[in-house]
């Protein structure tokens, strides 16, 4: 049975990007920010590139490469004291309770494994944290705290914490966190699809679940948008359906034998997902993961106040959730710095604060007067009255209805207006005018479109998900 690897995903992704660029397809999508399906790369790819805690940044990688390069796996140099725990398929953890059957992903401070809970006869995800991060992660305490809260709307988006335990290895003591496995990230589901879109009913349900979950988290004073995952259905024929795990030998460049800190082989994360356009209502239940990366949004999100205000201490606002929503409903984020200058597309990789501000102004209107005057580069894109100077800058074209082009249900004009109004309410320039997650929860789009989609999805929930 064919198993898609990270190497295959990366190559396929590059070909798709190149093809869409040369064929001038209007719905090119980015591949570097969004995450959402399985625990694949679950703490590696983030909604916000700045969301990773600086305290977790690795300092244990040597300056000179010691091992042969293996694509699609964790950094082999981090298998050293303070780093990863050396593991392989078939290993048993927690006194033989959890048997590793496959690898789900990896990140800068953990590897994530699909394991069989031999006591409960079910699949689980075991996240094994690096030794130097194990004592600092707030993930378990946050999860226990949130789970001990009384059930309220939105709390269902939080994955239950089944267990946590410690393992001692040659690289130190490692904390292990056990949760339900998830099938894939939204990012990977979109990447697996040729069109990179969700069915409208599925997109509505996912967005509504996300809004409900973030509103719940903010009501408990936690801000978290690390990963959004689609849950993993149970199966007794895992390898038959998805193929055997694939691994590569770790080779020391100077021919020396490997130390006991380094595994003899590293495993490539498997793919257990489906294409985004193949997900149907009942299979779209999402969960948030990686509470070890919970963060304060004002430290990581480049909202306008960071550029123009000397100091500000607003409450956490919905600006932190506006970014993923357009990418679930369509192809591109609302604000990405994606302008055309002299005919060349300036991708997010090259987006400067000024380019992002320019897109904010084009989308939302002129900045408040006191901010507008402080923006020294405004005339590079706009006239003094705030109108776009088309001689200098133009915007990348975007297809309004790529769904219609491929035969998917189109989005009605009324829903488009309601969705736009909901987004704009989150994007007000002044923080005190910006909608909170609670306000978004009660928006017209949520009442007329989002919540009904969630209820329909729950009414048709896949029995395999219910059993899990």
UniProtKB/TrEMBL annotation:
PROSITE patterns, A to Z: PROTEIN_KINASE_ATP, PROTEIN_KINASE_DOM
Residues involved in ATP binding: 127
MF terms (GO), sorted A to Z: ATP binding; protein serine/threonine kinase activity
Domain of life: Eukaryota
GO biological process per UniProt: regulation of mRNA processing; spliceosomal complex assembly
Catalysed conversion reaction: L-seryl-[protein] + ATP = O-phospho-L-seryl-[protein] + ADP + H(+); L-threonyl-[protein] + ATP = O-phospho-L-threonyl-[protein] + ADP + H(+)
EC number in record: 2.7.11.1
Keyword annotations from UniProtKB, A to Z: ATP-binding, Kinase, Nucleotide-binding, Serine/threonine-protein kinase, Transferase
SMART domains (alphabetical): S_TKc (SM00220)
Start and end residues of each Protein kinase domain: 98-446
Enzyme class: transferase
A single Gene Ontology CC term: nucleus
Protein name: non-specific serine/threonine protein kinase
Organism, as annotated: Aspergillus sclerotialis
Organism lineage: Eukaryota, Fungi, Dikarya, Ascomycota, Pezizomycotina
